[in-house]
Specification:
homotetramer; mainly alpha; Arc Repressor Mutant, subunit A; DNA-binding
DNA sequence: TATGAATGAGATTTCATTCAT
DNA sequence: AATGAATGAAATCTCATTCAT
């Protein structure tokens, strides 16, 4: 057999790396960072313990990569240019559903992320990434409430943020029974 | 000297027990359950490691006691009979502020509780207590939305729940800068 | 009330001391020395942990007292002057039964003693006491086999010692079902 | 370099496992189960503490493995088919010497085993293994005494068992000075 | 690159002993 | 004398990380 080209090797590394990240996300989200062991992650990824260390320096760095990667992906998702006119009720509704979809596709990530930022010690590590994501989020959503004749656009924007966070939280706790559609309609009715 | 009476002893144990629970709450809330050590808790409580085991069977049981105690306290708080007429805008506002006060007084507890229920493995342990608290919460808030001429009382109640959860979440993340009063007014405007 | 006389106090101490020794024997015999805790012994004796230390310097000293006391009692039992003529078959049988009775009355003690001398580290502690007891035992039994026309009195004495030890061992293991009488008859038939 | 093959791995684990069992036997036999520490065993085996837990779940399970393994080995030894005719005086003598050899080769094991079955709590754990060994032992020795014109074959068998147990006990206590040959001759004279 | 045995620091837990009451 | 809360050294056990193969 001919030796693999460096491009093939690169692709292989990339794939293995993702495999490990996926496994780590699943395990961290279910057991918490400190409750997870390298052993669990390796088993979930279907590789040997030692191999993790050829892809990630340490358990801590693995977590950091995971969060950075997840937030970047989410930012990219958020900043995909929307099609059609903005600032209409329809655009608001479409954006809202997009947010929910973003969350549903990456539930484990958001669960893990929520757990982490609730711990001051952990939160610190991700302050930079979190701030950067928050800015994206704000630039996407902030302007909307400035267009409406709200008595207090700033407060309404904060409240809407709380609605999204609370919705996410409640969806994590009961993903199956939650009456999502009806609640979304109610949000649109109250905020759009 | 003569030994302490059993009354003295009981009071001593009660006091120590609370002292340890307070310390554990602080440490668990800041480091997470798995990131906390018995050593940290003992140091925070100002007692020797070994003493914790004379009051609580294990680290795990200590956590369980903490959560059970906290939820019971919160339930008691919620069910204190309100004064004045109910189902008015004013009563709604008063209740809302009471909820926020409850949360602010026990921020560490709610932070810890939130972290825990995000982890399936942990959540299971507290299912019974959590359900019992949820029922109290629902019986207090559920009826309100049945009185209003809401198109969908059920969805509105769920949404209001998400608002409370999201507000709590955001208050944990930035307790000092949060424009709480303005957001509360906005909530009252939209939901009362 | 008049203060207790020093004689009364003395008697009280004596009684308490015995109470603790009895408890310690029971616990040590059932859990082994290292598997027993001061707490267990105190509970069994019906007194507080701290009190043990006003009667015995340490757990180790308590064990030593126990063994010394037990061996002394056994020596005293052995050297009680037998009534009637010695060196007859009947005397042999009587002595044998007396040995068995001695053992049965203090089963826990012999169980503990056996456990201890099987461990070199423990055995050392009791070497002096054990030797002293062995001498008593030998002086009582040694002469018997010198009277009989045994090919090898010394070996027969050793073998008889093994019989007694093995009998004790087997009686510990199945105290209820053991066909003691039949085995004793067999011993008498073979050795008397 | 390439990783070890699973055959190599298995051999390695087998070897290490035996190494740890040997070390554990030595330490347990000398200090007693509760008087032994994992540290002592690891040091004796020449490996790190943590490694023991990769081979045995817990200290307790290590003990259980040790006993099970030892009794199985002894059973195998006992049931090796004897050569030559049975039920003769010579066969009896040969068997007796075989028993003694079995014991001498595994003195530490029998010392440990004796210590353990004297403690009810420990004995329970090994009841199954102990019974199974006892049956083997009985099937090997039981038949002998049914052949002889003994007044009471059952009692004689029990007594012979006690002789073996007592001999073992006494050999543990003074392995070097014991006049084994003379005592064995005496046993053969009395029982064969 | 890939494996999993091996390490040892550090976590949880136990318990003999002390001591204030 | 008697109590049992409190201590802390030492035990058991865990797990991130290293390393020989």
């Amino acid at each position: 057999m001919s030796p693999r080209t460096s491009t093939q090797l690169q692709a292989l590394r990339e794939e293995r790396s993702m495999q490990i990240l996926r496994a780590a996300l699943k395990v961290f989200a279910n057991q918490g960072y400190n409750g997870s062991t390298i052993e669990m992650i390796a088993r979930e990824a279907g590789v040997a313990k030692g191999l993790l260390y050829s892809y990630f320096e340490s358990k801590e760095k693995l977590l950091e990569s995971l969060i950075t990667y997840g937030l970047e992906k989410a930012s990219a998702f958020l900043t995909e240019p929307p099609d059609g006119p903005q600032h209409t009720k329809e655009a608001f509704a479409a954006n809202l559903r997009k947010m929910v979809q973003l969350f549903r596709e990456e539930q484990d990530f958001w669960r893990l992320y929520s757990m982490l930022i609730l711990q001051p010690k952990m939160a610190e590590k991700f302050k930079a990434d979190a701030m950067s994501f928050l800015e994206t989020y704000m630039s996407v959503y902030g302007s909307y409430f400035q267009q409406k004749q709200s008595k207090n656009p700033m407060a309404e924007a904060m409240l809407f943020g709380a609605v999204l966070d609370g919705l996410m939280f409640d969806l994590i706790l009961s993903p199956d029974e939650y009456p999502l559609e009806e609640v979304l309609d109610m949000i649109i009715e109250k905020f759009a």
